[in-house]
Each structure stands twice: as structure tokens, then as C-alpha cells.
Specification:
With 318 residues, the chain is an alpha/beta fold. It has helices spanning 12-25, 42-46, 58-67, 81-86, 88-109, 142-161, 187-197, 216-228, 249-259, 271-279, 287-293, 301-316, and strands at residues 4-7, 30-34, 50-52, 72-75, 112-114, 117-118, 129-131, 165-166, 168-170, 172-174, 201-203, 211-215, 240-241, 245-247, 265-267, 283-284. Helix 2 links the parallel strand 2 (30-34) and strand 3. The structure holds 2-amino-3-ketobutyric acid.
């Protein structure tokens, strides 16, 4: 039986991934790792074990892995793109020094490791239309630099020591459960909160700016299915492009207006977010993920929009 540690289990992806893994493997087999001040609450706290697991402390990670007989680590500790630009040293300490600690423990104790990369690993020089799997990666944000390093360091541990490292390049993730904090794609979540509350949305991203996005249920499946894929089918291991939908602000606004016709949006562009958004792909080519481990998305823009509004409504307007 698998024993999994989710590092960063109270974050945007971690909170839902921990619950999805517990449903799949049984609550007692999935440890919710957290840092002091971000303790698991409610169902996350009650449905299985939790442990303080700070990536910047390798000995602490090692002790948790030993205590719970962990064989798979989902390492979700990271700062998102916008916040990382204002705290670059912390972003590096958590994203890269922390990853090093995780990979060393994984090497010593024989664990497999999933660490997400992102569309943020690309830059202005990358082909933006159907961005290939293997292409130019020269990001100018510290977030992007740390994501490229994540992919390379994970590959290095795999080739040098045989550690089973795997990762996908996540698009912007949209969910009605835990809100994101400090990302460039956050607008695609915030827009739903305004729409469902009946408020006008002030959009920080310019009309016509397309980015890849993905609904959370697909993102969770991508992480779990990649980790469960037979290794002999994998040509790549780290940095798989995974795509589901690509849209600009006016496209998601129009989709919401089909269901909430009164909804209105106005642009007030944030220069930092806009510069980051323009350096990211418009739409990725994810054919390697589809061929090597059978990746398939389930949610496109209309299906995700309908589900977000249906699920957010009782939460925001009880
Ligand atoms: C961000 O906007 O920083 C993240 C990402 C796409 O990696 N959501």
C-alpha cells in the first residue's frame, strides 16, 4: 500500500490534492504536511494524519518520511509568480533549496517525487502558439527561473541517482474551494467571485491576452495519473505540458454572461501581471503527455464555467 506525504497541503492545490489522494488510498495513508501558521482545518484535519513538514528543514522532512513510511512525496511548496517577484530570496529558498531537501530525502529513502512546474517556466522568446514540449525556456521572473530549475534538478536526480521524479507544467488553476494567492492567473478565479456576488469585476489583465487554464479536478487527475503511469512508457519525466483550455479575459467574461447576463467587467491593467502574462504561452501543445501517459482533460471553458457558478453560488449567496 502506498504512503503519501503532501508537502504544502493547506495551499491552493495541496488542500484538494490531499483529499483526492485520501479518497483513493484511504485517509490514514496520506499525511497532510504543513508549516506552522498554516495548520489544516476541518475535513483536511479530520480525515487523516498531519505533520509539520517545512521544506526548508531537510531533517524535519526526513523524520516525517521515516515516521509514516512514506514512499511518494507530492511537493507543492512554492510562492506564486507575482508574490515571488517581491520576495525572490524566499521564493528560491522554498522552491529550490526546499526541493533539494526533498530530493535528497527521496534519494536516501527511495521515494517517488511529484513537483509541479508551470507555464511560468516559459518566457518571451518561447513560441506562444502550440508551445512545444521541448523548446526555449528563458523566463525573466524569479518564479519562472525557479520552475525551470525545478525541472532540471528533478531530471538530474533522476538521471544521476535514479530517483523517480515527475512533474507537469500546470496552467493557471481554477477552483471554487481554496483561492490562489499571488499568481498572474488569479483573475480567472476572482472573476467568478465577483460574478456570483453580482459585482462588477475589475480585470488586471488586458483584453486579448490568452493564457492556458485548467479546472482543479483535471489538475488533480493530471498529478495523480502521471505518478501512477508505468515508468517504461515515459520518455520525459519532468515538465510535461498539460493543457485543457486557453482564453482571454473577454472570452471568460462572455462565457459567464451566458449564464449571468447582468455580469459586467472593466479593465484596470496591472503592469506587472500583464508583463508576466504576455511572456507566457497562449496555448501549449500537450501531445507528449497525451501519448506517454494518456493525459486527457475533461473540462473546457463552458463546462468549467457552469460548474464554478453552480458550486460557488451556495457558498457565496447562502
Ligand atoms: C501563477 O499565476 O503564478 C500560477 C501559475 C500559472 O503558475 N497560477
Amino acid at each position: 500500500m502506498k504512503n503519501v506525504l503532501v508537502v504544502g497541503s493547506t495551499g491552493q492545490i495541496g488542500s484538494e490534492l490531499t483529499m483526492a489522494l485520501r479518497q483513493r488510498l484511504g485517509g490514514s495513508h496520506v499525511v497532510a504536511g504543513y508549516i506552522v501558521g498554516c495548520e489544516p482545518q476541518g475535513e483536511l484535519a479530520e480525515s487523516g494524519p498531519s505533520a509539520v513538514a517545512d521544506v526548508t528543514d531537510g531533517r524535519m522532512i526526513d523524520a516525517v518520511v521515516e515516521k509514516y513510511h512514506i514512499d511518494t512525496i507530492y511537493n507543492l511548496a512554492a510562492l506564486l509568480s507575482v508574490v515571488a517577484e517581491s520576495k525572490p530570496r524566499l521564493a528560491w529558498r522554498v522552491g529550490i533549496d526546499g526541493l533539494w531537501n526533498i530530493l535528497e530525502v527521496a534519494h536516501e529513502r527511495g521515494c517517488a517525487v511529484f513537483t509541479p512546474s508551470s507555464i511560468g517556466s516559459f518566457g518571451l522568446e518561447t513560441p506562444h502558439d502550440h508551445t512545444p514540449q521541448d523548446t526555449i525556456q528563458r523566463p525573466r521572473t524569479i518564479y519562472g527561473v525557479s520552475k525551470v530549475t525545478t525541472e532540471l534538478l528533478s531530471d538530474w536526480f533522476h538521471h544521476k541517482y535514479g530517483v523517480d521524479t515527475r512533474s507537469v507544467r500546470f496552467p493557471g488553476i481554477i477552483s471554487y474551494v481554496t483561492p490562489p494567492g499571488g499568481g498572474t492567473t488569479d483573475y480567472a478565479v476572482d472573476i467568478f467571485y465577483s460574478a456570483v456576488r453580482g459585482e462588477k469585476f475589475i480585470c488586471p489583465i488586458k483584453e486579448g491576452t490568452r493564457m492556458d487554464m485548467m479546472y482543479m479536478p483535471d489538475a488533480l487527475r493530471a498529478a495523480i495519473e502521471l505518478m501512477e503511469a508505468p515508468s517504461d512508457r515515459l520518455v520525459h519525466h519532468n515538465g510535461f505540458n498539460v493543457a485543457a483550455m486557453s482564453f482571454s479575459p473577454e472570452m471568460i467574461c462572455a462565457e459567464i454572461q451566458k449564464l449571468l447576463p447582468q455580469f459586467q467587467m472593466e479593465y484596470r491593467v496591472d503592469p506587472l501581471k500583464q508583463a508576466i502574462a504576455e511572456s507566457w504561452p497562449d496555448i501549449m501543445d500537450d501531445s507528449c503527455a497525451r501519448t506517454e501517459w494518456g493525459w486527457q482533460h475533461e473540462y473546457d471553458l463552458p463546462r468549467m464555467t457552469a460548474d464554478m457558478i453552480e458550486k460557488l453560488h451556495p457558498r457565496l449567496c447562502p
